[in-house]
Amino acid sequence: MSKSTPVNGNLIGILGGIILSTDSVFIRLMSIDNSWMIVMLRGLFMWGLVVLVYLLWPKSRAILGVPWITRQNALSTLFFCVASACFVNALNRGSIATVLVIISSTPFVSAIISRLFFGTKIDKTLMMAAIAGMLGVAIVMTGRSEGHDPMANYFALATAVSMALAFIFASKVENGTVGLPSIGGVLASACVVAFTGGSVLHGVPLLSHYQWLWLAIEGAVIMPLAMGLISLSTRFVSPVNAGLFLLLETALAPLWIYLFLHEAPTPQAIVGGCIIVLAVVSQTLRVKRQEALA
Questions:
Q1: What membrane topology term does the record carry (predicted)?
Q2: Are 179 and 50 in contact (CB under 8 A)?
Q3: pLDDT tens, position by position, 230-259
Q4: How many domains does the chain have?
Q5: How many angstroms separate the CA atoms of 69 and 80, rounded?
Q6: Domain assignment present for 107
Q7: What is this structure's pTM?
């Protein structure tokens, strides 16, 4: 692997994280109370775009991958499906700042899972950072914003675990990985329709033109592009590093929410978020120092 490869992987992931930071704003702008309807419709938009690109731009298939489930991508698709469903429910039910701080624990969850279940060697400093990060998550989850469903925090934690597993298994896929989150999205759509007996479809004709506009932007542009880029980065950097790109959403999304929707974070989210960010920054700087000395 050339020295430029990790740099390119980091740039790809950073771009994906910046784009992803706008996602929560669009979900709130939709003003759709039924979270499962959002999961269903945005999954269809995500997958529709991938299929369109796959058919009209054959050269993209090398990084896009196939827009259907295969034996090789089944596990990553499954966990992207779970993450998609949990992410929307977390954002639609709780404080966005709190939810995103919990989700920012993804790289630490990834490190712990890699060590416990896949035998990946993790150095002591990374494990210490992971433990500190999970302590930050525990602090965040003790806080509850008025008017928000306390289940949002658990949906957020499930998102972090699912995303960690999705990145781990995506890194093992030999072919294109950009389309994996979108396949997971459409799988989530099918599951929602099946589990609700089709009742989730009843409210679709009642959506306004503005709601369809925000759905289209979030589902067909923001999510497939952002998650596709982060998933692609796992071909060049470790799944743990890929999870770090989600911190850009943690840092930027509450700012967009505060500026446009005037929603302030809870004190627990601020304290826990600082612990998580400090843990990640310290670990990142340590790795860079090691690379510079190598």
A1: Multi-pass membrane protein
A2: yes
A3: 878 877 777 666 666 777 777 777 778 878
A4: 1
A5: 12
A6: yes
A7: 0.79
Q: Which of 243, 276, 258 is nearest to 14 (CA)?
A: 243
- Taking the C-alpha atoms of residue 113 and residue 106, their distance in angstroms, rounded to an integer, is 10
Cα gap 106→130, rounded to integer Å? 10
Question: What Rg do the C-alpha atoms of the chain give, in angstroms?
Answer: 18
Q: Which of 87, 29, 35 is nearest to 212 (CA)?
A: 29
Tell me whether residue 160 is in a domain.
Answer: yes
Q: Residue 210 falls within a domain, yes or no?
A: yes
Contact in structure between 106 and 163 (CB atoms under 8 Å): yes
Please report, in angstroms and rounded to a whole number, the separation of the first and last CA atoms in the chain: 15
Sign of CA dihedral 216, 218, 220, 221: positive
- Alpha-carbon distance of 145 to 154, in angstroms, equals 14
Beta carbons within 8 Å of 30's beta carbon, 6+ residues apart: 38, 211, 214, 215, 218
Residue 1 lies in a domain: no
Structural domain of 198: 6-293
